[in-house]
Design brief:
The structure is a homodimer of 88-residue chains. With 88 residues, chain A is an alpha+beta fold. Chain A has helices at residues 21-37, 63-87, and strands at residues 7-18, 43-50, 53-60. In chain A, α1 packs across α2. Chain A is elongated. Chains A, B: It holds the Pfam family Pcc1.
Chain lengths: 88, 88
């Protein structure tokens, strides 16, 4: 299916905006290591912190690996937010 | 959880590139109606066709509705591709 697919690539810039720069920094510091070590040969992800925003760039070869990357990224962010709520 | 979340918004531009403009147009024509009628009050999606690319813009209030929108969009595209494969 993948080799026959007429789909060439799926790319995305995701901007996650937080209430303030502190919250964004806490989440960014919590998840940066996941992004750097995630083993996926069909997609690449980069993450950047910009004030109260986290920018995630995903470049995938196919839609399945794109969905996997988006879902991983969002899960990591949610997990960081939930742990942070516990510790406030 | 949602009201307390320090997450303000999740926005994304997704670019799906196909082998050629014909394939992109077939998929675009198949899924445009889904995008126009999808009832979601926490996120909005727009779709545009540009030669061999389909651009999807998602603007969501929270990460859950963002993931739902991304997953819907990718599923519609995959479904259109699979049906098109059957009919070739």
């Amino acid at each position: 299916m993948i080799e026959e697919s007429p789909l060439e690539s799926v790319k995305s810039d995701i901007v996650v905006e937080f209430e303030n720069a502190d919250q964004a920094k806490i989440v960014y510091d919590s998840i940066i290591l996941e992004f750097e070590t995630a083993p996926d040969f069909r997609s690449s992800m980069t993450i950047e912190l910009d004030d109260s925003k986290i920018m995630i760039n995903i470049d995938a070869e196919d839609s399945t690996s794109f969905r996997a990357s988006v879902n991983s990224a969002i899960k990591w962010i949610n997990l960081a937010l939930q742990i942070n709520n516990l510790t406030i």
